[in-house]
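Dear colleague,

As promised, here are the two records you asked about, laid out in our usual form so they can be pasted straight into your sheet.

NAME FIELD: protein one
SEQUENCE, THEN STRUCTURE:
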Amino acid sequence: MTRLQSRILSLVIIIGGMSAGGWPIAGQTTPPSVTKANDKQPALKPGQIDPEKSRVYIHVSKKRLGHDHAIEGRIKSGSINLKTDKSTAKEAGLIEFDLGSFSADTDAARKYVELKGAIAEATREQVTETMLGSDVLDVEQFPRATFKIKSAELRSAKNGDPVYTLQGDFTLHGKTRPLSLSTQSELQDGKVRRLRGDFTILQSDFGITPYKAALGTVGVADELKIWGDIWIVVEDPAGKKERK
């Protein structure tokens, strides 16, 4: 075998190894192992929201011949400081909603907002596509919604668990409006572990035109009812972050 043939054979072996288990040779410039490490979420700190457990649910009411829908969405990131009230200059936190994750009429969403029956997958996909598209949420231009929490005030206790009022600014579809909601908490080792609350908005207040079709005989209402089910990372009595 000549030196040139040897070099060609070596090159073929290297390329073959890259294609089979190493670096891909099309459309990707970093090894899969590096990409996976970079995509790994950093460890959460006390006070931060756990995006794996937290959810947002929305009830979309029908208008005329339309149908009620239930939406399930995920939290992108966030944190809440429940020791921050109006007397402090420090803000109480931020919740970032991943609008691209929103999915229509999941079983979990329909159960949460108390809608009966299941929806066929094809119908769910069609409704989700319309919801995320440019005529409604337009997630390509507005991929996130945020709730910038200015204060978190302890108001009362219900069934032994504290109730907080969260006040701040809610931003959706490029529009920002003030928002105040009451949230009931659950405790773990004397620390708030879970917050649940609900509020209503008008789509038109955020520059969104409620969906309608068939000359308006099929559509949804302007008002949306939204529930937040937020799980917060806490410390155990020894001061260590809880284990997942």
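NAME FIELD: protein two
SEQUENCE, THEN STRUCTURE:
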Amino acid sequence: NRGLLISSVTSIAVNITAAEFFVDTDPGAGNGTPIAVPAGSTATFAAVVPTASLARGFHFIAIRTRDISGKWSLFENRGFYISNTSTNVGNITAAEFFVDTDPGAGNGMPITVPAGSTTAFVAMVPSTLLTNGFHFVAIRTKDASGNWGLFENRGFFISTVTNNMANITTGEYFFDTDPGIGNGLPFNFTTPGSTVTQALALNIPAGLSIGNHLLVLRVKDANNIWSLFDTARTLNVSGSVVPLNLLSFTGKKLSDKTQLDWVTNNEINTAHFEIERSKNGIEFTKIGVIKSTNAVRTNLYMFNDLKPIDGVNFYRLKQVDLDGKFTYSNIIKILFEGFGKALSIYPNPAQNYVLLNFSDKQKNVFVTVFDAQGRQVIQTTMANQSPLKLNINHLPGGRYFIQISDGLVNENGSFIKK
């Protein structure tokens, strides 16, 4: 019995060991042009793509990677255009749209557009002759040389109903190939509504091969009208036991402590949770352990950090299985102000810059600024002097928090940007 869970769990990626590209036609995994890549769970590399033999016009290039176990990923592609001119592309001079069926470049409904290398315009699309149901409208543009671009399309729905749409009541999913509306694998919503947010546990059908697949969803309303389908994500079927589903991991500041809460389900083969904390978001230390209930039902957990560090606290969960395997949760940040030494900041409120009087005398200092939601907005190293001048001209108005450190001494403060 194999199962799939859509969750927010972040697992450790397998190292990338190879990559390849192809242009226009997929020759099959492993048969593309190889690219030298540095091994690792993430890799940054450049590829030189020969274009001399390509015809003038639109093409696409696709890249895929292979992991240490020999499995190839799905490819990722991007379009490009081959031109025999060496000058900049001519200005956009015309545009047209069509609905559902492409009549061919130049045969669509014309749209009046202001000429330019980029342009903004509004098009009125008549819909009185369209049947009820889903359609798509497509727009393309023409340059001063008479070349038409590819079209860009968007879906829309025609309905005779004048009141709000009926509630979403149910849905279905399938892998890779659409079996037709109503023929997918069904799932239900606990609470139907016009918008629905719910974690879904979806079974993998017997016979689905090991490897990468596309998971696709669509939903139906109370009037039995189906939506367009949406490709939820790419997934890999490995045949191994599926880890627990972490539905949420949140934290909040309560006086001088941090309360961490998380919700799970499908706890199969789960041993315990290790709570980890960091002062920089990179180096984490275990600060507590909570034993798992190891139950399939929805499970609620809470942990209190009674001694949060000065400034921003980074937290994550390490979810450990009975066999010793583990995965990490997302990282959350909780900001504590007012602990330890205060930093002298002026002017306050400020508009273009703030001056910082830092008490220690080390050569260089590390300055980090967070907004009121705990998001990092500035991170810089400065040569220590008295005072330090920090440019804040680019920040929007509001309250901000500063951490400053020379590696030995940490000080914290806040300021208001006008």
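A couple of things worth noting about protein two: The chain has no helices and 30 strands. The first strand starts at residue 3 and ends at 5.

Best,
R.
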